[in-house]
Amino acid sequence: MSAKMHAAVVEEFGKPLVFREVDIPEPGRGQILIKTEACGVCHTDLHAAKGDWPVKPNPPFTPGHEGIGRVVAVGADVTIVRAGDRVGVPWLYSACGHCEYCLTAWETVCAEAEFGGYTKNGGFAEYILADPNYVAHIPSGLSAQEAAPLICAGITTYKGLKMTEARPGEWVVVSGAGGLGHLAIQYAKAMGLQVCAVDIDDGKLALARKLGADFSVNATREDAGEAVSKGTNGGAHGVLITAPSLGAFKQGVGMTRKRGTCVLVGLPPGDFPVPLFDVVANCITIRGSFVGNREDMAEALAFAADGKVKADIELQPLTAINDVFDRLEHGKVAARVVLDFTTG
Ligand code: NAD
Ligand code: ZN
Ligand code: ZN
Question: How much is the pLDDT for 2?
Fold first, then answer.
Protein backbone atom coordinates (compact mmCIF):
# COMPACT_ATOMS: atom_id res chain seq x y z
CA MET A 1 0.00 0.00 0.00
CA SER A 2 1.38 3.42 -0.93
CA ALA A 3 1.88 6.20 1.61
CA LYS A 4 -0.90 8.75 2.02
CA MET A 5 -1.10 12.54 2.39
CA HIS A 6 -3.78 15.08 3.23
CA ALA A 7 -5.12 17.27 0.43
CA ALA A 8 -7.95 19.81 0.09
CA VAL A 9 -9.80 18.86 -3.07
CA VAL A 10 -12.35 20.61 -5.31
CA GLU A 11 -14.84 17.86 -6.09
CA GLU A 12 -17.59 20.12 -7.40
CA PHE A 13 -17.47 23.78 -8.52
CA GLY A 14 -18.89 26.19 -5.96
CA LYS A 15 -18.89 23.63 -3.13
CA PRO A 16 -16.56 23.62 -0.10
CA LEU A 17 -13.25 21.85 -0.61
CA VAL A 18 -13.20 18.29 0.68
CA PHE A 19 -10.34 16.98 2.86
CA ARG A 20 -9.07 13.71 1.44
CA GLU A 21 -6.34 11.19 2.20
CA VAL A 22 -4.78 10.51 -1.17
CA ASP A 23 -1.69 8.65 -2.40
CA ILE A 24 1.57 10.61 -2.24
CA PRO A 25 2.49 10.91 -5.94
CA GLU A 26 5.72 9.30 -7.12
CA PRO A 27 8.02 11.36 -9.34
CA GLY A 28 8.35 9.84 -12.79
CA ARG A 29 11.06 10.57 -15.34
CA GLY A 30 11.86 14.29 -15.34
CA GLN A 31 9.69 15.04 -12.30
CA ILE A 32 10.37 16.01 -8.69
CA LEU A 33 8.40 15.59 -5.47
CA ILE A 34 8.18 18.44 -2.98
CA LYS A 35 7.16 18.20 0.68
CA THR A 36 5.02 21.29 1.18
CA GLU A 37 6.08 23.76 3.89
CA ALA A 38 3.73 26.61 2.98
CA CYS A 39 1.22 27.59 0.30
CA GLY A 40 -0.33 31.02 -0.22
CA VAL A 41 -4.04 31.36 -0.97
CA CYS A 42 -4.59 33.45 -4.12
CA HIS A 43 -7.94 34.80 -5.29
CA THR A 44 -7.29 32.71 -8.42
CA ASP A 45 -7.72 29.57 -6.28
CA LEU A 46 -11.19 30.83 -5.44
CA HIS A 47 -11.98 31.44 -9.14
CA ALA A 48 -10.71 27.89 -9.83
CA ALA A 49 -12.87 26.32 -7.12
CA LYS A 50 -15.94 28.17 -8.40
CA GLY A 51 -15.27 27.36 -12.06
CA ASP A 52 -15.40 31.11 -12.82
CA TRP A 53 -13.41 31.20 -16.06
CA PRO A 54 -14.20 30.07 -19.63
CA VAL A 55 -11.35 27.52 -19.54
CA LYS A 56 -12.13 25.32 -16.54
CA PRO A 57 -10.12 22.79 -14.56
CA ASN A 58 -11.46 19.23 -14.24
CA PRO A 59 -12.64 18.24 -10.76
CA PRO A 60 -11.45 16.53 -8.69
CA PHE A 61 -8.33 18.70 -8.41
CA THR A 62 -6.20 20.26 -5.67
CA PRO A 63 -5.77 24.07 -5.95
CA GLY A 64 -2.76 26.09 -4.80
CA HIS A 65 -0.03 27.73 -6.91
CA GLU A 66 2.04 29.40 -4.21
CA GLY A 67 3.38 26.15 -2.75
CA ILE A 68 6.91 26.17 -1.31
CA GLY A 69 8.82 23.21 0.08
CA ARG A 70 11.88 21.01 0.00
CA VAL A 71 12.56 18.56 -2.79
CA VAL A 72 12.31 15.08 -1.23
CA ALA A 73 12.56 12.84 -4.31
CA VAL A 74 13.75 13.24 -7.88
CA GLY A 75 12.80 11.13 -10.87
CA ALA A 76 15.18 9.80 -13.53
CA ASP A 77 17.06 12.33 -15.69
CA VAL A 78 16.57 15.27 -13.30
CA THR A 79 19.79 17.26 -13.08
CA ILE A 80 19.01 20.91 -12.29
CA VAL A 81 17.27 20.35 -8.96
CA ARG A 82 18.55 18.23 -6.05
CA ALA A 83 16.95 16.64 -3.03
CA GLY A 84 16.93 19.21 -0.20
CA ASP A 85 16.57 22.27 -2.46
CA ARG A 86 13.81 24.70 -1.45
CA VAL A 87 11.61 25.42 -4.46
CA GLY A 88 8.19 26.83 -5.29
CA VAL A 89 5.59 25.32 -7.62
CA PRO A 90 4.05 28.30 -9.44
CA TRP A 91 1.03 28.91 -11.66
CA LEU A 92 3.21 28.30 -14.74
CA TYR A 93 3.72 24.62 -13.94
CA SER A 94 5.33 23.72 -17.27
CA ALA A 95 5.44 24.69 -20.94
CA CYS A 96 6.64 23.07 -24.19
CA GLY A 97 10.01 24.85 -24.27
CA HIS A 98 10.26 25.21 -28.05
CA CYS A 99 7.28 27.15 -29.50
CA GLU A 100 7.63 30.77 -30.64
CA TYR A 101 6.48 31.97 -27.19
CA CYS A 102 8.78 29.70 -25.19
CA LEU A 103 11.73 30.70 -27.36
CA THR A 104 11.12 34.39 -26.64
CA ALA A 105 10.61 34.04 -22.84
CA TRP A 106 6.81 34.25 -23.17
CA GLU A 107 6.31 30.70 -21.91
CA THR A 108 3.31 31.97 -19.93
CA VAL A 109 1.26 32.00 -23.15
CA CYS A 110 2.56 28.67 -24.52
CA ALA A 111 -0.35 26.64 -25.94
CA GLU A 112 0.91 23.59 -24.07
CA ALA A 113 1.39 25.35 -20.73
CA GLU A 114 0.07 23.55 -17.66
CA PHE A 115 -1.09 25.49 -14.60
CA GLY A 116 -0.38 24.60 -10.98
CA GLY A 117 -3.48 23.99 -8.89
CA TYR A 118 -5.58 24.17 -12.08
CA THR A 119 -4.63 21.69 -14.79
CA LYS A 120 -2.17 20.02 -12.36
CA ASN A 121 -2.69 19.32 -8.67
CA GLY A 122 -1.29 22.11 -6.52
CA GLY A 123 -0.10 23.11 -3.09
CA PHE A 124 -3.18 22.61 -0.89
CA ALA A 125 -1.62 19.22 -0.12
CA GLU A 126 1.28 17.85 1.89
CA TYR A 127 3.25 16.90 -1.24
CA ILE A 128 3.38 18.41 -4.74
CA LEU A 129 4.68 16.87 -7.95
CA ALA A 130 6.54 19.40 -10.13
CA ASP A 131 8.52 19.94 -13.31
CA PRO A 132 12.06 20.92 -12.25
CA ASN A 133 12.44 23.17 -15.31
CA TYR A 134 9.72 25.55 -14.10
CA VAL A 135 9.99 25.64 -10.31
CA ALA A 136 10.98 28.83 -8.50
CA HIS A 137 14.33 28.69 -6.70
CA ILE A 138 13.87 30.24 -3.27
CA PRO A 139 16.77 32.43 -2.05
CA SER A 140 18.27 31.14 1.20
CA GLY A 141 17.39 34.29 3.16
CA LEU A 142 13.63 33.78 2.76
CA SER A 143 11.44 31.44 4.79
CA ALA A 144 8.95 29.22 2.94
CA GLN A 145 6.06 31.18 4.49
CA GLU A 146 7.30 34.59 3.40
CA ALA A 147 8.32 33.34 -0.04
CA ALA A 148 4.93 31.76 -0.82
CA PRO A 149 3.01 34.92 -1.89
CA LEU A 150 5.92 36.05 -4.04
CA ILE A 151 5.67 33.19 -6.52
CA CYS A 152 2.24 34.35 -7.75
CA ALA A 153 1.18 37.68 -6.23
CA GLY A 154 4.77 38.95 -6.28
CA ILE A 155 5.84 37.93 -9.78
CA THR A 156 2.47 38.95 -11.27
CA THR A 157 2.56 42.49 -9.93
CA TYR A 158 6.28 42.97 -10.55
CA LYS A 159 5.82 41.91 -14.18
CA GLY A 160 2.60 43.91 -14.47
CA LEU A 161 4.40 47.06 -13.30
CA LYS A 162 7.13 46.46 -15.88
CA MET A 163 4.40 46.13 -18.52
CA THR A 164 3.08 49.62 -17.62
CA GLU A 165 6.44 50.94 -18.90
CA ALA A 166 6.26 53.63 -16.20
CA ARG A 167 9.70 55.02 -15.42
CA PRO A 168 11.25 56.04 -12.12
CA GLY A 169 9.65 59.22 -10.83
CA GLU A 170 6.42 58.64 -12.76
CA TRP A 171 3.03 57.73 -11.29
CA VAL A 172 1.35 54.35 -11.09
CA VAL A 173 -2.05 53.45 -9.72
CA VAL A 174 -2.45 50.11 -7.99
CA SER A 175 -6.18 49.34 -8.08
CA GLY A 176 -7.02 46.59 -5.57
CA ALA A 177 -4.73 46.64 -2.53
CA GLY A 178 -5.19 43.01 -1.45
CA GLY A 179 -2.92 39.98 -1.87
CA LEU A 180 -1.51 41.19 -5.18
CA GLY A 181 -1.86 44.91 -4.57
CA HIS A 182 -0.03 45.12 -1.25
CA LEU A 183 3.03 43.65 -2.96
CA ALA A 184 2.56 45.79 -6.10
CA ILE A 185 2.85 48.93 -3.95
CA GLN A 186 6.17 47.75 -2.51
CA TYR A 187 7.60 46.71 -5.89
CA ALA A 188 6.54 50.05 -7.37
CA LYS A 189 8.27 52.02 -4.61
CA ALA A 190 11.39 49.86 -4.94
CA MET A 191 11.32 50.61 -8.70
CA GLY A 192 11.35 54.35 -7.97
CA LEU A 193 7.73 55.01 -8.91
CA GLN A 194 5.17 57.22 -7.20
CA VAL A 195 2.13 55.23 -6.11
CA CYS A 196 -1.57 55.86 -5.66
CA ALA A 197 -3.52 52.93 -4.14
CA VAL A 198 -7.21 52.51 -4.98
CA ASP A 199 -9.47 50.13 -3.06
CA ILE A 200 -12.98 50.01 -1.58
CA ASP A 201 -11.86 49.17 1.95
CA ASP A 202 -10.32 51.70 4.36
CA GLY A 203 -8.31 49.00 6.17
CA LYS A 204 -6.63 47.94 2.91
CA LEU A 205 -5.88 51.57 2.11
CA ALA A 206 -4.35 52.19 5.54
CA LEU A 207 -2.03 49.21 4.98
CA ALA A 208 -1.28 50.52 1.46
CA ARG A 209 -0.10 53.87 2.88
CA LYS A 210 1.93 52.11 5.56
CA LEU A 211 3.64 50.09 2.82
CA GLY A 212 4.60 53.25 0.95
CA ALA A 213 1.65 54.43 -1.17
CA ASP A 214 1.98 58.21 -1.61
CA PHE A 215 -1.80 58.67 -1.47
CA SER A 216 -4.89 56.52 -1.60
CA VAL A 217 -8.43 56.70 -2.95
CA ASN A 218 -11.50 54.90 -1.65
CA ALA A 219 -13.47 54.23 -4.85
CA THR A 220 -16.75 53.90 -2.96
CA ARG A 221 -16.51 57.47 -1.64
CA GLU A 222 -14.73 59.35 -4.42
CA ASP A 223 -14.72 59.32 -8.21
CA ALA A 224 -11.47 57.38 -8.66
CA GLY A 225 -10.71 58.91 -12.08
CA GLU A 226 -11.07 62.47 -10.79
CA ALA A 227 -9.17 61.83 -7.56
CA VAL A 228 -6.26 60.17 -9.39
CA SER A 229 -6.17 62.87 -12.06
CA LYS A 230 -6.00 65.57 -9.35
CA GLY A 231 -3.39 63.76 -7.22
CA THR A 232 -1.11 62.94 -10.16
CA ASN A 233 -1.59 66.14 -12.18
CA GLY A 234 -3.22 64.52 -15.19
CA GLY A 235 -3.50 60.77 -14.54
CA ALA A 236 -1.09 57.94 -13.83
CA HIS A 237 1.52 56.92 -16.42
CA GLY A 238 0.79 53.31 -15.50
CA VAL A 239 -2.33 51.71 -14.02
CA LEU A 240 -2.31 48.17 -12.66
CA ILE A 241 -5.77 46.71 -12.08
CA THR A 242 -5.56 43.81 -9.64
CA ALA A 243 -9.09 44.01 -8.21
CA PRO A 244 -11.32 40.98 -8.87
CA SER A 245 -14.19 43.33 -9.69
CA LEU A 246 -15.42 44.63 -13.06
CA GLY A 247 -16.15 48.00 -11.45
CA ALA A 248 -12.41 48.56 -11.04
CA PHE A 249 -11.79 47.74 -14.71
CA LYS A 250 -14.38 50.27 -15.82
CA GLN A 251 -12.44 52.95 -13.90
CA GLY A 252 -9.05 51.97 -15.36
CA VAL A 253 -9.00 54.16 -18.46
CA GLY A 254 -10.25 57.19 -16.50
CA MET A 255 -7.22 56.96 -14.19
CA THR A 256 -4.69 56.63 -17.05
CA ARG A 257 -2.68 59.61 -18.25
CA LYS A 258 -2.62 60.51 -21.96
CA ARG A 259 -0.22 58.08 -23.69
CA GLY A 260 -0.22 55.96 -20.51
CA THR A 261 -0.73 52.20 -20.15
CA CYS A 262 -3.44 50.41 -18.24
CA VAL A 263 -2.40 46.83 -17.38
CA LEU A 264 -5.16 44.32 -16.61
CA VAL A 265 -4.21 41.61 -14.14
CA GLY A 266 -7.33 40.85 -12.08
CA LEU A 267 -9.55 38.15 -13.52
CA PRO A 268 -13.19 38.59 -12.48
CA PRO A 269 -15.50 36.65 -14.80
CA GLY A 270 -17.20 38.77 -17.45
CA ASP A 271 -16.47 41.75 -19.70
CA PHE A 272 -16.30 45.50 -19.22
CA PRO A 273 -17.05 48.40 -21.56
CA VAL A 274 -14.08 50.31 -22.99
CA PRO A 275 -14.58 54.07 -23.51
CA LEU A 276 -13.34 53.95 -27.08
CA PHE A 277 -13.16 57.68 -27.73
CA ASP A 278 -11.00 58.31 -24.65
CA VAL A 279 -8.67 55.42 -25.46
CA VAL A 280 -8.20 56.56 -29.07
CA ALA A 281 -8.06 60.31 -28.55
CA ASN A 282 -5.72 60.03 -25.54
CA CYS A 283 -3.51 57.36 -27.17
CA ILE A 284 -3.95 54.99 -24.21
CA THR A 285 -2.68 51.40 -24.23
CA ILE A 286 -4.71 48.66 -22.53
CA ARG A 287 -2.93 45.33 -22.14
CA GLY A 288 -3.31 42.09 -20.27
CA SER A 289 -0.51 40.55 -18.21
CA PHE A 290 -0.32 36.96 -17.00
CA VAL A 291 2.09 36.03 -14.16
CA GLY A 292 5.66 36.29 -15.51
CA ASN A 293 8.49 34.24 -16.97
CA ARG A 294 11.25 32.47 -15.05
CA GLU A 295 13.57 35.45 -15.17
CA ASP A 296 10.80 37.68 -13.76
CA MET A 297 10.44 35.08 -10.98
CA ALA A 298 14.11 35.26 -10.03
CA GLU A 299 14.00 39.08 -10.06
CA ALA A 300 10.78 39.24 -8.03
CA LEU A 301 12.29 36.95 -5.38
CA ALA A 302 15.54 38.94 -5.34
CA PHE A 303 13.69 42.12 -4.31
CA ALA A 304 12.42 40.23 -1.25
CA ALA A 305 15.78 38.62 -0.51
CA ASP A 306 17.24 42.16 -0.53
CA GLY A 307 14.62 43.24 2.02
CA LYS A 308 12.87 45.69 -0.33
CA VAL A 309 9.57 43.78 -0.50
CA LYS A 310 7.92 41.80 2.28
CA ALA A 311 4.64 39.96 2.08
CA ASP A 312 2.18 40.68 4.90
CA ILE A 313 1.09 37.17 5.84
CA GLU A 314 -1.44 35.51 8.11
CA LEU A 315 -0.68 31.84 8.81
CA GLN A 316 -3.48 29.26 8.85
CA PRO A 317 -3.62 25.45 8.79
CA LEU A 318 -4.80 23.59 5.66
CA THR A 319 -7.99 22.64 7.54
CA ALA A 320 -9.01 26.34 7.60
CA ILE A 321 -9.15 26.65 3.80
CA ASN A 322 -12.94 26.87 3.44
CA ASP A 323 -13.12 29.64 6.02
CA VAL A 324 -10.20 31.43 4.31
CA PHE A 325 -12.01 31.22 0.93
CA ASP A 326 -15.14 32.66 2.51
CA ARG A 327 -13.19 35.59 3.96
CA LEU A 328 -11.31 36.15 0.69
CA GLU A 329 -14.56 36.28 -1.25
CA HIS A 330 -15.93 38.95 1.12
CA GLY A 331 -12.76 41.09 1.21
CA LYS A 332 -11.98 40.08 4.81
CA VAL A 333 -8.38 38.93 4.32
CA ALA A 334 -5.99 41.76 5.26
CA ALA A 335 -3.32 40.90 2.68
CA ARG A 336 -2.31 37.25 2.10
CA VAL A 337 -3.18 34.05 3.96
CA VAL A 338 -0.47 31.40 3.82
CA LEU A 339 -1.31 27.81 4.70
CA ASP A 340 1.42 26.60 7.04
CA PHE A 341 2.30 22.91 6.85
CA THR A 342 5.17 23.06 9.34
CA THR A 343 3.10 23.08 12.53
CA GLY A 344 0.43 20.75 13.88
P1 NAD B 1 -7.58 39.71 -3.03
O2 NAD B 1 -8.98 39.29 -2.77
O3 NAD B 1 -6.51 39.39 -2.05
O4 NAD B 1 -7.51 41.30 -3.26
C5 NAD B 1 -8.44 42.01 -4.02
C6 NAD B 1 -8.49 43.47 -3.55
O7 NAD B 1 -9.33 44.20 -4.46
C8 NAD B 1 -9.09 43.62 -2.16
O9 NAD B 1 -8.27 44.47 -1.38
C10 NAD B 1 -10.45 44.27 -2.43
O11 NAD B 1 -10.88 45.11 -1.37
C12 NAD B 1 -10.14 45.07 -3.69
N13 NAD B 1 -11.31 45.45 -4.49
C14 NAD B 1 -12.46 44.78 -4.69
N15 NAD B 1 -13.28 45.49 -5.49
C16 NAD B 1 -12.62 46.62 -5.81
C17 NAD B 1 -12.95 47.76 -6.62
N18 NAD B 1 -14.12 47.85 -7.26
N19 NAD B 1 -12.02 48.74 -6.73
C20 NAD B 1 -10.83 48.66 -6.09
N21 NAD B 1 -10.48 47.61 -5.33
C22 NAD B 1 -11.36 46.61 -5.19
O23 NAD B 1 -7.23 39.07 -4.47
P24 NAD B 1 -5.78 38.77 -5.11
O25 NAD B 1 -5.27 37.44 -4.63
O26 NAD B 1 -4.95 39.97 -4.97
O27 NAD B 1 -6.19 38.54 -6.65
C28 NAD B 1 -6.79 39.59 -7.38
C29 NAD B 1 -7.18 39.17 -8.79
O30 NAD B 1 -6.00 38.95 -9.56
C31 NAD B 1 -7.99 37.89 -8.90
O32 NAD B 1 -9.02 38.06 -9.87
C33 NAD B 1 -6.98 36.87 -9.37
O34 NAD B 1 -7.55 35.78 -10.06
C35 NAD B 1 -6.13 37.71 -10.27
N36 NAD B 1 -4.78 37.20 -10.53
C37 NAD B 1 -4.29 37.36 -11.79
C38 NAD B 1 -3.00 36.95 -12.09
C39 NAD B 1 -2.43 37.15 -13.46
O40 NAD B 1 -1.41 36.55 -13.78
N41 NAD B 1 -3.03 37.99 -14.30
C42 NAD B 1 -2.22 36.36 -11.09
C43 NAD B 1 -2.73 36.24 -9.80
C44 NAD B 1 -4.02 36.67 -9.53
ZN1 ZN C 1 -2.26 33.45 -8.01
ZN1 ZN D 1 5.78 26.61 -25.74
Answer: 82
Per-residue pLDDT, 132: 98
Which residue out of 265, 286, 290, 330 has the highest number of ligand 1 atoms within 8 Å of its CB and is therefore the one to mutate? Answer: 265
Q: Is 199 in the pocket of ligand 1 (CB under 6 A)?
A: yes
Give every residue of the chain whose pLDDT is below 70, as ranges.
1, 344
User: What is the predicted pLDDT for the residue at 1?
Assistant: 61
Ligand 2 centroid to residue 216 C-alpha, Å: 24
Nearest Cα neighbor of 65 from 75, 57, 73, 54 is 57
Residues 112 and 174 in one domain: no
Q: Which domain holds residue 119?
A: 4-152+292-340
Q: What are the phi and psi torsion angles at 336 (to 5°)?
A: -135, 130
Counting Cα atoms < 13 Å in the Cβ hemisphere of 58 gives 3
pTM beyond 0.90, yes or no: yes
Nearest CA to ligand 1 atom 34: 44
CATH of the domain at 162: 3.40.50.720
Q: What CA–CA distance (Å, rounded) separates 192 from 200?
A: 26
Given this model, what pLDDT does residue 344 score? 65
CATH of the domain at 308: 3.90.180.10
State whether the beta carbon of 44 lies less than 6 angstroms from ligand 1: yes
Considering the domain architecture, whether residues 147 and 183 belong to the same structural domain is answered as no
Contact 267, 194 (CB under 8 A): no
Are 69 and 35 a contacting pair, CB within 8 Å? Answer: yes
Ligand 1 pocket test, candidate residues 107, 159, 180, 293, most atoms within 8 A of CB? 180
Closest by Cα among 135, 147, 153, 177 to 302 = 147
As to burial, measured by CB atoms within 10 angstroms (0-12 exposed, 13-18 middle, 19+ buried), residue 42 is buried
Ligand closest to the CA atom of residue 96:
3
The answer to whether the beta carbons of residues 250 and 272 sit under 8 Å apart is yes
- 231 in the Ramachandran plot: left (φ > 0), alpha (ψ -120 to 50) or beta? alpha
Residue 243 CA, closest ligand 1 atom number: 7
